[in-house]
Amino acid sequence: MDIHLIGPDAFIVEFATSERAISGFNHLKKEISHLLDEVILGASTIVVKPARYSGVTKEGIAEILKSAKFEEGGPEQKEVEIPTVYDGQDLKDVASHLRLSVREVIDMHCAETYTVSFIGFAPGFAYLTGLNPYLKVPRLSSPRAQVPKGSVAIAENYSAVYPNSSPGGWRLIGRTAVELWDISATEPAILHPGYKVRFVERRFK
Question: Which range of residues forms the domain containing residue 15?
Fold first, then answer.
């Protein structure tokens, strides 16, 4: 774990793995959220912006994180199932690129249990680690101007679901009707760092 000053009043904490970053993120929010203006989780980093006059220092952050329990997947172990219809417009191209059958791509994607590493790009957009290495594919060379809400996608080492219609360059392999982001709800996002996710194949009419 390394901590560096970024800008005049924020710190970045770098971890060896995303699992440790998740644990550290949840620990900081639990212990000193009242002293922080912002705490932002990245793939293997946390950006911490202390509140003005909070007295939070680099050394203080390091001391607090020493008491964190760095467990696999972080303290949150809730599992969310995502019913998925595998009919994405890139599914056949992904299979061809990987020299797999469409059936093999679907089975391999469903076989894994994913971990929410961090939230980014758009509200409720969760970067899911745990993708089978055989399914690693690059992003599109030119992003689409509009990706449909609920699109299940893969790119590089991640899988994800688009919570709303938006531009995007990931490979679309399926779709789900699950609402990942509801601004009217008390808790708008259903996925949070450390949560487990499983994709379950469905055949909708």
Answer: 2-66
Which of 43, 48, 71 has the alpha carbon at shortest distance from 58?
48
Answer whether residue 73 is part of any domain: no
Cα-Cα end-to-end distance for the chain: 50
pTM assigned to the model: 0.79
Q: Are residues 92 and 187 in the same domain?
A: yes
Q: Which of 135, 190, 187 shows the shortest CA–CA distance to 158? A: 135
| 12 closest CA partner among 66, 64, 49 | 49
> Is the torsion defined by CA of 131, 88, 192, 140 positive or negative?
positive
Query: Distance (Å, rounded) from C-alpha 205 to C-alpha 187?
Result: 30
Last residue of a domain, one of 20, 45, 66: 66
Residue closest to 2 by CA, chosen among 13, 10, 16, 18: 13
| Residue 159 counted as domain residue | yes
Domain CATH code at residue 54? 3.30.1360.40
Choose the final residue of a domain: 66, 100, 116. 66
Phi, psi of 49 (to 5 degrees): -115, 105
pLDDT digits (tens, 9 = 90+) for 27-84: 898 888 899 998 888 888 999 999 988 888 888 898 888 877 765 444 456 899 999 9
